[in-house]
Amino acid sequence: MKRVLLALLVLVVLAVGAAAAFVLYRKHQGRNVHGSSSVEFVTTQAPTRKRTPLELRTIPWPMYGLDDARTRFADGVHLRPPFRKLWLAGGTSLLEFPPAVGYGRLFLSNNSGSLFALGARNGGRAWTYKTHRCTAASPAINRGTVFASFMNRGACNQTNPGLDGLVAALSVGLGKVRWTTTIGPTESSPLVANGRLFVGAYDGHVYALDERTGRLVWRASAQPRLGSTGTFYSTPAVAYGRVYLGSTDGKVYSFGATSGKLRWSHGTGGYVYSSPAVWNKRVYAGSYDHRLYCFDAATGDVRWSFEGNGPISGSPTVIDGIVYFATLKGRTYGLNALTGRQMWSFPDGKYSPIVADTKRFYLVGYARVYGMVPR
Q1: Contact at 8 Å (CB) between 168 and 214?
Q2: Are the CB atoms for 66 and 276 separated by under 8 Å?
Q3: Upstream peptide bond of 82 is cis (omega within 30 degrees of 0)
Q4: pLDDT-based confidence at residue 23 (cuts at 50, 70, 90)
Q5: What stretch of H or E contains 343?
Q6: Residue 319 above 70 pLDDT?
Q7: 160 pLDDT more than 80
Q8: Cα(35)–Cα(38) distance, rounded to whole angstroms?
Q9: Overall average pLDDT of the 338-361 stretch
Q10: Exposure check for the chain: N or C terminus, fewer CB within 10 A?
């Protein structure tokens, strides 16, 4: 009997011990755990973010002429003909001047007075700003602002005294107006350089405006001549401390960028509506005499000239050693920029035909814009 009681007591003790061990085990499982500051904990690892594509963060062609020096030489761009078309936009209103390219968009104005933005990849329209003024100029992009110049209201190409033009500054993202300044009617594309905005006008003056406020800094005039004074249709180019532009008096002019004083001028055989391109100490401009001229940037001496198939109204562009320009007969030419030898031609592009980024070649026809890539 004593042995049975002893066995039962042992079983009870074992059961109580097992129960206690189980309670302790469960308590151990539910304990607080202190983490390590060195095991699989990396403080230098950044959180995952969606990166903005480089194309949407850069401005590959910020203004007419590419940069604030108006070199029109796209350094680092290696796109050569022949090309194939990716997309086509426009077709309802005259596009006399090429777009500015930035933030994955093309910014351009049409003849009916609308400034709008197109997607660089597909040509889709992003926003539109309507002025109801005549327009024949390229915008400029700088520090998140789009600058655009406009002519008079009503019938286009009027040069009557008393008519006014407009320069407007708008935000890049939404096209919101930041300031406007009234000047003479102008088809000159704004140039942004060193905090100033340069434009020419039909009132015979070149204007320098403050970039932030639109305030007038200085203005200069064309040379007095026997008969009527020439007017400035041409867009200025700034390089080597000079301002270069053409006039309806048939001359190409060079002014001091700081003083506005005349440094040289050279006549051609027709109107010089063409805006100069500047590259390698050379100035390129077309004339209504059907010729593209290459001038010495310092002296104005003619290095060479090339005769196209019609009057030249638009501006040339230099890409990878080739100078591109178009004639009013509807053909774009590509010439060796050093020698003037013809390298290529294309049956469209009536005015200023070419801008580009590192991926695409944009050709502007009479009323259409082509997005292109090399074949």
Answers
A1: no
A2: no
A3: yes
A4: low
A5: strand 342-346
A6: yes
A7: no
A8: 9
A9: 90
A10: N
Q: Other C-beta atoms within 10 Å of 339: how many?
A: 12
Which pair of structure tokens corresponds to residue 259? Answer: 């003083």
C-alpha span between 284 and 241 (Å, rounded) = 17
Phi/psi of residue 367, nearest 5 degrees: -140, 15
Instruction: Check: CB of residue 136 under 8 Å from CB of residue 97.
Output: yes
Residue with tokens 């005499």: 289
Measure the CA–CA gap between 106 and 98, rounded to whole angstroms: 9
Class at the top of the CATH hierarchy for domain 66-374: mainly beta
Output the six-digit token pair for 64.
Answer: 């007419």
Closest to 277 (Cα-Cα) out of 257, 263, 289, 294: 294
Give the up-direction half-sphere exposure of residue 219: CA atoms within 13 A in the CB hemisphere: 15
Distance in angstroms (rounded) separating the CA atoms of residues 299 and 50: 53
Match 């939404």 to its residue by tokens: 174
Residue position matching structure tokens 């590192």: 358
Residue type, 53: P
